[in-house]
Target: 8-oxo-dGTP diphosphatase
Amino acid sequence: MKVVLVAAVALIDVDGRILLAQRPPGKSMAGLWEFPGGKVEPGETPESALVRELHEELGIETWNSCLAPLTFASHGYDDFHLLMPLFACRKWNGIPHPKEGQTLAWAHARELRDYPMPPADIPLIPILRDWL
Ligand SMILES: Nc1nc2c([nH]c(=O)n2[C@@H]2O[C@H](COP(=O)(O)OP(=O)(O)OP(=O)(O)O)[C@@H](O)[C@H]2O)c(=O)[nH]1
Model:
């Protein structure tokens, strides 16, 4: 089974809310809410991949030093095994806006379970709730 490394981030605002992005129609798992991020490309670290993805997906700027390791997901999908480190980030420049057709939502930790998420993300929700 192919292991795919995807870096993801919980962006946390001053009110303690977390940014979720809804996968647009046409993509796999369309309609589900996920943490911003994406595949780590050859030559990238998880942190540098996130800095790139946050710029491409949301138009914000952040730095490796602002990405703190929080937890990870390890989940077997039908066609690949997802290994997804989840970072926490409270500091960035700019206002996140959807640049790739996503819908964005800021959710309090207690509201996270109201947003349908990919199966890999489900175990992360109580971890975030306890941590925040
Ligand atoms: N960014 C992100 N990806 C996630 C999360 N949970 C989860 O299962 N994934 C999966 O990790 C992969 C992320 O890949 P990607 O962001 O680079 O690529 P993509 O959406 O174009 O995916 P695709 O190759 O499935 O079309 C997708 O298969 C996505 O479904 C999450 O919380 N955030």
The first strand starts at residue 3 and ends at 11. The domain at 3-131 is CATH 3.90.79.10 (Nucleoside Triphosphate Pyrophosphohydrolase).
